[in-house]
Amino acid sequence: MPLLLIKNEIMAIRLSNNCSNCDHLLDGDVCTKHKVLVNPHYTCDSFEMKASIKDERNCVTCARYEESDCANPTKASIGMLCAAWAPQAAKA
Ligand code: SF4
Ligand code: SF4
Hints:
Blueprint: E1 3-6, E2 9-12, E3 25-26, E4 30-31, E5 36-37, H1 51-54
Antiparallel strand pairs: 1-2, 3-4, 4-5
This protein binds iron/sulfur cluster (SF4) (2 copies).
């Protein structure tokens, strides 16, 4: 899990819901929803997680699984999922 040290505080970097992880993004940074060029770091209310990421989300594929930053360490298991799920190889 990448960590960032800011003013003596260690902060976990989380995956954001941005264009690079959105199902509406085509090669060439074209948004099929709005028909415009976008920056992979943009986001909007129409964001939809890529199906390839969405389909494989569960604790076993979570970067936080069995790590100190897991949101539900006593419940995490195969087939379980929570809002803090993070991909093991994030593209951001
Ligand atoms: S602008 Fe919105 S809909 Fe388009 S790719 Fe980005 S997050 Fe997805
Ligand atoms: S409980 Fe949440 S944070 Fe913990 S491994 Fe499962 S999905 Fe990830």
